[in-house]
Write the structure tokens for this entry.
Amino acid sequence: MNESDADYLTQGMTAAGFTAVPDLDQADIAILVTCSVRQNAEQKAYGRFRELKAWKRARPGRAVAMTGCMANKEKDRLYDRLPDLDYRFDMRQYEAFIQDLQGEYETDPAQTGGAVLQHGLTAYVPAIFGCNEVCSFCIVPFVRGIERSRPLDDVVEDVRRFARQGVREVTLLGQTINSYRDPERGARLAELLEAVERVPGIWRVRFLTSHPRHVHDDLLFAIRDLPRVCEHLHLPFQSGDDAILKQMRRRYTIEEYRAIIAHARSLVVDLSVSTDVIVGYPGETEEQFQRTLDLLEEIKFDVVHIQGFSPRPRTTAARQADDVSPVEKKRRINVLLDAQRRIAEAANRRWLGRTVEVLVERVEDGEFSGRTRQNKVVLGAAPLGADVGTVRLVHVEQATAWQLKGQALN
Ligand code: SF4
């Protein structure tokens, strides 16, 4: 979401007459798009700000702005804490921020207005802002607000614009993307995916992040039947223990989660599944942690993102004692990582000898790299014509936990 925020900000500022420069030394304004999902993300933002102080003082007229979740959480207290901060704004009002800046800087929209920003092959497009869930550990609803789906036509229009700029793969974003509801016509995510995949130039469509409570058949049929929608589902389970899940207010049981995955896999051939896990939630016992490990072994996810519990202000979980020590959290993370390395390698070995479709993202020194529809990284010797942005068929010859290697076919 933060990458997407930075992207929209850059697009908006470019249209207003500002120019994005690759080197900070050439810049007049630096904007930090911050995250507050974990304590160390905030520490990083403060660290980056400290670095920017020297940059700002080196030339009069330079300014630093902050936005994103940490800026929303801290509000105007940030100005007291960081006297060198010039602007703080909410991404929900980023257009007003840009207008204010236009009043202070001499910009000429005629020079850059409508300029095509150099985009990569992929772009993130928000479809929902905020979240209506009430997970006990999560700060997002406090800093991003309640759920607001964007009109389907607006999302499709953004995708069209990106496609004109050379984007070939879009990822639709939302904290709970699968609860998308077009505010005008009531269309759900499946219909949005269908509308987006019809945009000329778009070859692949993905979506992030799904909540287990809203995985319905229309979505699974869309993944199965729409040719440009990739066979990948990111479905956080967070804990393998029902009592912890209840405390987390995730509002599903492990049995229900299992059933969703089994059903999705029965409908969508070669579906890749990734997930998020938290270890060391307040009161998590060794036995409860083992259930998380058991679920990893049982479901065999393609990718697992593992985090140690980090108490966030205003959340219910922050009122409980953070009683699993940092050392123990680290140990639990490492146990899961070790298991996942083995599981991912076995999962990737399933692709040996098969032919996969790869969107080429990089060609360098005679080698290409790209990703399959299941989001697996593939490397190999680049044949003639394997240009960035082309789709190639690749015969898979090697598999490790993190990538596949193969021979591109003519
Ligand atoms: S669904 Fe995700 S974003 Fe929403 S409260 Fe739960 S963890 Fe946070």
